Amino acid sequence: VFGGNPAELKQIPWQLLHTDFTRGGASLISDYWALTAASAVEGFENYNMTWFGGIIDSTAKNPVTMKAEKIIIHPNYTRVPQSGPRKNFDNDIALIKMFDKVPLSPNIRPVCLPNKTQELVLEGTMGTVSGFGGFEKGLKSRILRYGHIQEYPSKLCVFGDMPVTDNMFCAGDDVRRVDSCGGDSGGPLFFPMLGHGTKEQPYEVRGIVSWGP
């Protein structure tokens, strides 16, 4: 996360990290399931991907280690073509089922999901993005970082020929220069922003880091 802050233990306990952390992250949503971007797991559906949780340091000696039993990619996700450039990232979402039940603790626990009737995030609403991705001159972060960003009008996020579809929304912060970066793919954008969650308004993952300029 570019322009963000280092997280403290227990602050974002649903954040997962793939062991090859160039592939990105995921969000724990139950004691068996995690949510990520299809682009972060594409091509690995038949491999036992290993994920770390319960840590804020990617070199920690005692992570909770989880092996994926099954990866379910959205059936309408547009996969990387065998030749030529990718056309879009529509339906860039996937579920990961772990082989074993995740041992929940204050350091590792699920984030909530919005219900079906919940309204979409309004433009200007502040949320928090997190990950172990790039944070400075392209360097990946050893420490989990987070940044507060807001939803933008989709027209502000058009980049090259890549379309912003109805299944996407756009977020960032040009004023404070905060944004997700390479290596954050698959990680969460959650609301309300970090530090503002309550029992009545718990943190919910409302977006998944997918693509950007």
Automatic annotation (TrEMBL):
What broad taxonomic lineage does this protein's source fall under? Answer: Eukaryota, Metazoa, Chordata, Craniata, Vertebrata
What broad class describes the main subcellular location of this protein?
A: secreted
A Pfam family that this protein carries is Trypsin
Top-level division of the source organism's lineage = Eukaryota
Q: Which residues cross the membrane?
A: none
Which source organism? Cirrhinus mrigala
Matching entries from PROSITE patterns are given as: TRYPSIN_DOM, TRYPSIN_SER
Identify the GO cellular component terms for this protein: extracellular region
Q: Which GO terms describe its biological process?
A: proteolysis
What protein am I looking at? Peptidase S1 domain-containing protein
